Amino acid sequence: MNTSMDMYFCPLYSGSSGNSLYCQYGETRLLIDAGKSGKTIEDALASIGADIRSVSGVLITHEHSDHISGAGVLARKYHLPLYATRETWWAMSDKIGKIPPDTVREIEAGKDFWLGDIGVVPFSIPHDAADPVGFRLYGGSMSISTATDLGCFSEDVYANVAGSTLVLLESNHDPDMLRANPKYSTALKARILGDHGHLSNEACSAALLRLIHAGTADVILGHLSGENNTPTLARRVSTEMLVREGIRPDEDVRLQVALRDEVGSVYILKERI
Ligand SMILES: [Zn+2]
Ligand SMILES: [Zn+2]
Known about the structure:
CATH architecture: 4-Layer Sandwich
Number of strands: 14
Bound molecules: zinc ion
Order of helices and strands: EEEHEHHEHEEEEEHEHHHEHEE
Radius of gyration: 17 Å
Structural class: alpha/beta
């Protein structure tokens, strides 16, 4: 990929088995989460022509292992700074092991900052973690928002995400598949279905409708459950909702599904002058 004022985004991995998203604008490259091994993330980046040594830092959403399992390695091996809220640092320090002190960067929900050429806005999301956040990333007039691991699409989340050029939103599960899943305890089902759990396909599609009306042209369904969802089903629920409302997928809006174990497509957002 050439350095230009286009904005690049790639969901390297998204799902309950590990999350890592890539974004590039200007001279700056960053990751959101490092929930696969360091080697897997390095290889995924290489497969899209990006070198892990050129990455400026890793934004951490929360301390669950599917978001941080490779974070310690990236800080130790490549000296990548990790950006997380204070409560997330408290919750994840033991899990990621000892890291160089200067790779510890503290952020705060609602407080925007620059990471090189990219403007970063962390915002709170309703999830059962210490202080979980989603991120809106700004490059020129474009912006990309990622919101996964949220029990409900609150008005607060909407306000932070609305108007983004591209949104990656959680489409975690089909509630009927989840309820019928004999491998999940009643308590776990209640946790996932609760307001601080994960977003269902239906809740995702309703949120997408609002976001598309607010100007979003590119949507990616992410953080799919491997047990209680399929890419086909997630796509169908959102597509049907959009079509019912008169929005034509692939014409009015581009809708894709980020896969759990396959490096996703590279999105190129063009600055509109
Ligand atoms: Zn997760
Ligand atoms: Zn989580």
